[in-house]
Amino acid sequence: MTRTLLQSVLLLLFLFAAPELMAQKRAKRLADEDTKNWRYEIQCVNVGRQGSYLIKVYSFSRKKHIPAEQSKKNAVHGIIFKGIPAGERGCVSQPPLARNANVEQEKREYFDDFFAEGGKYMKFVSLTTDGAVAATDRFRVGRNGKEYKIGVVVTVNIDLLRKELESAGIIRGLSSGF
């Protein structure tokens, strides 16, 4: 009888936990889809120590909470492919590191690995907020307000990122000439 009771309790626990686990997996999958579409905006907040920038990245998501990793990926992607718009506190407009508009497609395999879960992008970015973004950084947008625009502040070491991309042959070095 004890064994049957234990099995019943375990079955009940599974039945209550399974929907939550499935919802978490679905939320992560949706966040990954949003990141693969590279839907974000970046804004310079401040120039950090030598070679780094403090950037606010606004990611778009159907959920009001996004994983911090999505924001980190978006910030690094923005620096490589979009550049940094001018901002306050000494923020000067910075062109994208990759000047070739087709490099993302040409080097798809490299960037798939680079931006994979736990990929190299993580070496160049750190979260400066704890992921629990203030309400002023979360806006309802889109049709019928069914989407969120969520701002997270990150620090990106652009000098190290540039060196990585140069050594991988993705971009040309600053000293290579024009």
Itemize the secondary structure elements and their pairings:
Layout: H1 2-36, E1 40-47, E2 52-61, H2 68-81, H3 103-106, H4 108-114, E3 125-127, E4 138-141, E5 147-157, H5 158-167
Antiparallel strand pairs: 1-2, 2-5, 3-5, 4-5
How much β-strand is present in the residues?
Answer: 15-25%
What structural category characterises the helix and strand content? Answer: alpha+beta
What integer value in Å does the Rg equal? Answer: 20 Å
Quick check: average pLDDT?
80
* Helix proportion range: 25-40%
A few lines on this structure:
The protein contains five helices and five strands. With 178 residues, the protein is α+β, with helices and mostly antiparallel strands. It has one domain.
Task: Write up this protein.
With 178 residues, the protein is α+β, with helices and mostly antiparallel strands. The chain has one domain (35-176). It contains five helices and five strands, in the order αββαααβββα. Strands 1, 2, 3, 4 and 5 form a five-stranded antiparallel sheet that branches. The protein starts with a helix and ends in an 11-residue tail after the last helix.
List keywords for this structure.
single chain; 178 residues; alpha+beta; 5-stranded antiparallel sheet; 5 helices; 5 strands; elongated
